[in-house]
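debug: dumping io for the single-chain case to check the tokenizer round-trip. Nothing else runs in this session.
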Amino acid sequence: MNAKNELTSEIDYNNLCVAYWEVIVFVDPYCPHCKALLAALPGLAARYRFRLVPLPVLGDASQQAVLAIDCLSVADPEQARQALLESSVLRSLPPPKDGCGQVQAQRALVTAQILGVQGTPYLIAPDGRLRQGVPEDLGAWLGQGEGTP
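debug: decoded output
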């Protein structure tokens, strides 16, 4: 058997990884525009991986919600994601204790400041394009740069 055949015989074609385009989305848990954007994400999940970054831009309630989500994300990332997506789950979170969530929240705030984020939602496309606000057609906006991630 030649080297090419040996290589292909070791590849499990049923378990090849699906490549996703990654999109970073800064969202405030209480931002109505963010909620509209988040509602559009499941329809694009087969093509894109969305990394949601909670960012408190709407005051004290947002700050407390982001800390609670960030705190929960250490122990239960899936529930933290659900809290960000669903207001009823968000309202049921206990308040963070002993500085829990502070490190993640501070990192998000510093990153947002470096990027010049003035509000949410704020998107970073796979090719590095930046956008504040909800695109009229999110799929089309994301697809514009798919040849150059």
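debug: round-trip ok. The beta strands are 21-27, 48-54, 122-124, 130-132.
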